[in-house]
Each structure stands twice: as C-alpha cells, then as structure tokens.
C-alpha cells in the first residue's frame, strides 16, 4: 500500500517530449501495449502507465491492451537532430522502470519477453545494458540523465523510513483544519461536526505529482490532477505533495474520528484503539483553546497519558480568537502545562497554533475566494502584532514571518524532530 500510494507517477522532463506529436503518440502506444502485456492489464499498472504516458504527450491515455505491432513501431522511432538516432534506451528504461514500480519481481519476465519477441540483433545489446542497470546497478551512460535522476530520487524517498503521526481530538477542536494547514492543501472536510468516521491515511509525495488515492468503495487506486475531483469521502489512503517544511519527509498523518461524537459511538472506540496500539511515531492532541477544560477533553487526555507510549505534542488551537484586553495567551499555555504535569506528563510539549490562519497563509492567493481573501487580510494584520506571535510563546524566535507567527512552522519542526 505505502509504495503504491506515494509513488511519483509523472515526469515533467522526459526526453521523449522533444519528439514530434506523431512520434510521441507512437512512443506511448508501444509503451502502453508492452506494459499491458507484461502485467496482464493490471489496474494499478494501467493507472501508472496512463499518468506517465500522459505527462509525455500532454493528455491522459485510454488504450491499454497488448498490441505487438505498436511495440515494434515504437522501437523503430528515429529522432532527427545533428544525426539520426533511435530512442530505444528511453523506451526500454520506461518499460523497466514502470514494471519495477509495479512489481520488481516481474523484471526477469520482462527481459524474457523483450528478448524473445521484440529485441533482435543489436537491440539485444541495448536490452542487456538496461537490464544490467536495473538488476545489477551497473551504470549505463546511454540512459538519459533525467530518467536516471527520477528513478534514484524516487527509490531514495520510498526506501526511507515512514514517519507516522496520529492526530486525535474531540469534535470541533479544529483537527481537520490543522491537518490541512500542515499539508497546505484543503483535502479534509472542515465543519463544526464529526467529519471523519474511520482512520484516514494522508501521505506526502516528494514532488508535485497530483493526487493518488485508494478508493475504499471501488477497492482500487485512482489518480487525479485536480483537488476538486478528489472523492475524499471514499479515499481511505491519499498521497500528494505537502506545502510544508515536511515536504521532503516520508510522512503519513493518520486522521482519526472525533472521540466524543454523540452520533456515532464507534468513532470514539476507533480512535482509542488506535491510541492503544501505538503504531505511530508521535501523537498530536488538539484542543480548542477557546473552551478547553471540558470533561470530554479531560477524558481523552487521561486515555492518552495512560495508553500512549510515544511522544505527544499538545496543540492549543484557535488562540487567535483571544482578545488582548481580556485573555492571556501566556497564562493559558502555563495553566495547560500545569494540568498536564498533574496528569503525570513530564515536561509536556505544547504548541500554540492558529490552524485556520496558517492554512489561509499557505494557500495560493489565486485559489482564494473573496471571503477567504478578506479574512486573510485581517489575519495578516492580527499576526503582525506581538500578542499574536504564537511562536514566540514557546521558542526564542521573536521575529518570525507572518506564517511562522501562526505557530505552524514550530509545530512542523516538532513533528520532524520527534519522529525517527
């Protein structure tokens, strides 16, 4: 699941993009045909192939079936420049790379298929060179650098340890907004009610690459370039590139149901079981600072203290709603810290945050509607005041950027430092 969901599916600098439109179509038709043949039209391979080929020709592919004639045509493409030359290294690399991304155990079968049916005479030498590159890590200078770098970068990211962050809160604490703020993308529904009913896994991709998700209703992987077309209610696992200081980190945020959801008691059991299992590296507890201290918050905190064996970050959200003439942010943080100590937490890690402000400041201004733009202008003025510099209450950085003043940069740094 992890490998498939975080895999980088597209490429924006493929050498075949320099071909004519007709040649590009021939190229991807042969590639698609070969991949359909070796994978027996596997659904994940279909998706992967469509995206990869689409980034070469500029549109999504639809045909995905074996056609030996198209494979042979693609192997015969000649590109003109200072001299004629073929693009066979690129094509064979793509075949190997996409099969490796799907199921690396099938690479020997791919070699046999190409050797027996498609690579005659001097093509066999090219095939051996590409095969040795993938199977023996033998360098091959004829493989274009952009393709080599794409593969090495992807393999490095996918093989790095996955950092898992469990996010828990009671209903209306701002959990979904905080997750959106950390990722910089509004993928989680936000409302004053329980939005998540099962565990949802949100993965980072190491580059901009659209949205890959696993549809729990259709039981298959799907992909979209557009957030608006993402069916988040059916997406149990989703991956995209985080707009965050965590953007280079192999990380997964685990979104949990609100524990005190009065409409569905199973939600609380689902979250408490996730806490008990400790299958995560760090836990984020989110409290609504405006009304913290409810019985529901105390019950959840006692459960966390009792069952969680991993580091915990206690997040005080919505502190931007405080008024300087009436409220003390510093006292709120101190009182909260004292309460945690009384519960048995030694040196509690507390992160004051305004998730809503952080999300608005991270988003592309062109994506904001008039209401969001107006609110963002007000928030920028508010967070330029020392009283609302949330980062200054827990760190020594007293002159941050406007975004840092929301506390989000400090929180992301805590997450990165606390996960292995």
Molecular structure report:
This protein is α/β, with parallel strands linked by helices and about 425 residues long. It folds into 2 domains: about 1-160, no CATH class; about 160-205 and about 240-420, Rossmann fold, CATH 3.40.50. The chain is built from 16 helices and 11 strands. The protein has helices spanning about 1-5, 20-40, 45-55, 70-75, 90-105, 105-115, 125-135, 145-160, 175-185, 265-275, 295-305, 330-340, 355-360, 370-385, 400-405, 410-420; strands at about 80, 85, 165-170, 200-205, 210-215, 220-225, 235-240, 250-255, 280-290, 310-315, 350-355. Strands 6-5-7-4-8-3-9-10-11 form a 9-stranded mixed beta sheet, with helices on both faces. Strands 1-2 form a two-stranded antiparallel sheet. Strand 9 (about 280-290), helix 11 (about 295-305) and strand 10 (about 310-315) form a beta-alpha-beta unit. Helix 2 runs parallel beside helix 5, helix 5 packs parallel to helix 7 and helix 6 (about 105-115) runs antiparallel to helix 7. It is elongated and about 80 Å long. The mean pLDDT is about 90.
The major sheet is characterized as:
9 strands, mixed
CATH homologous superfamily annotation of the largest domain = P-loop containing nucleotide triphosphate hydrolases
Overall average residue pLDDT: 89
**If classified by CATH, what would the architecture of the largest domain be?**
3-Layer(aba) Sandwich
Radius of gyration: 25 Å
Helicity, as a percent range: 40-55%
Query: Which topology of the largest domain does CATH recognise?
Result: Rossmann fold
Give the end-to-end Cα distance, rounded to a whole number of Å.
21 Å
What is the count of structural domains?
2
Multimerization status: single chain
Shape: elongated
Percent of sequence in beta strands? 5-15%
Instruction: Tell me the total number of β-strands.
Output: 11
Number of helices: 16
As residue ranges, the low-confidence spans are: none
Strand order of the largest sheet: 6-5-7-4-8-3-9-10-11
- Going by helix content, strand content and strand pairing, the class is alpha/beta
Reading the helices and strands in chain order gives HHHHEEHHHHEHEEEEEHEHEHEHHHH
CATH class of the largest domain: Alpha Beta
């Amino acid at each position: 699941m992890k490998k498939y969901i975080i895999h980088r599916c597209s490429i924006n600098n493929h050498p075949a993009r320099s071909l004519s439109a007709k040649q590009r179509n021939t190229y991807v038709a042969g590639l698609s045909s070969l991949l359909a043949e070796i994978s027996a039209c596997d659904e994940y391979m279909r998706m992967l192939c469509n995206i990869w080929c689409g980034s070469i020709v500029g549109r999504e592919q639809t045909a995905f079936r074996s056609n030996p004639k198209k494979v042979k045509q693609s192997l015969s493409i000649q590109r003109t420049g200072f001299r004629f030359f073929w693009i066979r290294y690129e094509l064979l690399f793509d075949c190997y790379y996409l099969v490796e991304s799907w199921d690396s155990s099938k690479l020997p079968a791919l070699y046999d298929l190409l050797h027996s049916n498609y690579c005659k005479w001097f093509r066999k030498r090219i095939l051996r060179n590409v095969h040795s590159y993938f199977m023996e890590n033998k360098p091959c200078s004829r493989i274009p650098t952009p393709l080599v770098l794409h593969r090495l970068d992807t393999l490095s990211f996918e093989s790095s340890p996955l950092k898992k962050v469990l996010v828990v809160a009671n209903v209306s604490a701002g959990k979904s907004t905080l997750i959106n703020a950390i990722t910089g993308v509004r993928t989680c529904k936000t409302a004053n009610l329980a939005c998540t009913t099962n565990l949802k896994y949100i993965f980072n991709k190491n580059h901009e690459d659209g949205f890959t998700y696993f549809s729990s209703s259709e039981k298959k992987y799907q992909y979209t370039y557009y957030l608006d077309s993402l069916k988040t209610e059916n997406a149990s696992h989703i991956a995209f590139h985080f707009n965050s200081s965590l953007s280079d980190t192999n990380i997964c945020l685990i979104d949990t149901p609100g524990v005190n959801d009065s409409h569905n008691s199973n939600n609380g059991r689902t979250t408490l079981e996730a806490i008990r299992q400790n299958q995560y590296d760090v836990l984020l507890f989110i409290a609504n600072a405006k009304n913290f201290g409810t019985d529901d918050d105390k019950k959840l905190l006692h459960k966390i203290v009792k069952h969680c064996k991993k580091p915990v970050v206690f997040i005080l959200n919505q502190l931007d709603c405080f008024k300087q003439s009436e409220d003390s942010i510093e006292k709120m943080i101190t009182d909260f810290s004292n309460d945690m100590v009384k519960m048995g937490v030694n040196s509690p890690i507390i992160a004051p945050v305004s998730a809503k402000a952080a999300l608005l400041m991270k988003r592309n201004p062109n994506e904001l509607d008039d209401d969001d733009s107006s609110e963002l202008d007000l928030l920028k003025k508010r967070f330029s005041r020392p009283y609302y510099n949330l980062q200054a209450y827990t760190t020594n950085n007293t002159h941050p950027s406007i975004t840092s003043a929301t506390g989000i940069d400090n929180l992301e740094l805590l997450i990165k430092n606390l996960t292995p």
